[in-house]
Amino acid sequence: MLADVPDVLKPSQQANLNADIKTDEFGPNFKVILINDQVRELQTVIRDKNTNRSDFVFYADRLIRLVVEEGLNQLPYKRCSIITPTGTIT
To answer: Which positions fall inside the Phosphoribosyltransferase domain (predicted)?
Structure first.
């Protein structure tokens, strides 16, 4: 799906990347993570056939953490007050 995306995107092109991807076929909850330099580096390392196992695991874990973090950002939340063990209300 991202095969048509050029190697280097201008900021304006990157902002429009989500609009170019047809998310209808995946459902309303499908989200696309924008590719920034960090994601591009992680993908490059894990796709390199010369990457050793420990580096692959490290970089794949980092990429997975970014995906999970973005997923958690999509969850609903509400503000609430709590009383800490010291009696402070936050």
So the answer is: 36-89
